[in-house]
Amino acid sequence: MNIRPYEERDFEQIQALNEAEGWHQLIRQDELTRKAWRQSNVAYVVESDTGQVVAYVRGLTDTTVSLYVCELLIAASHRRLGIGERLLSHVHALYPETRLEMLASASSHTYYEKLNFRPFYGFRKTIHE
Q1: What is the pLDDT of residues 40-86, one digit of tens each?
Q2: Of 4, 44, 111, 119, which is most buried by a Cβ count within 10 Å?
Q3: How is residue 80 annotated by DSSP?
Q4: CATH class of the domain at 2-114
Q5: Helices (H) and strands (E) in the chain, counts
Q6: Domain boundaries, the chain
């Protein structure tokens, strides 16, 4: 498996992963999601040996203080192989002085706690639903 920067040709496979995960807002807002990928300065995919995108991370960073992960998704067929941890380590190594921040769902919090993330309090307001 190979971690590499996102390319425009990856977008359809990313949307297929989003669909499989039930992340319907990203699917419904296809053009906005595509634009978000273009404008993100942290955008990496994991490609299998067959060339299939099986995981991705998209985020934003100021390069000095904060690195914020917007989405991290691993295909169900490739979970529990350490891919998520490798992706997070990869992007954090690019900006080692930053703090790594993300929101997690109630069902994924134990995964991040296992990786020594600590919970913090936050809010989210979705403008376009």
Answers
A1: 999 999 999 999 999 999 999 999 999 999 999 999 999 999 999 99
A2: 44
A3: T
A4: alpha beta
A5: 5, 5
A6: 2-114
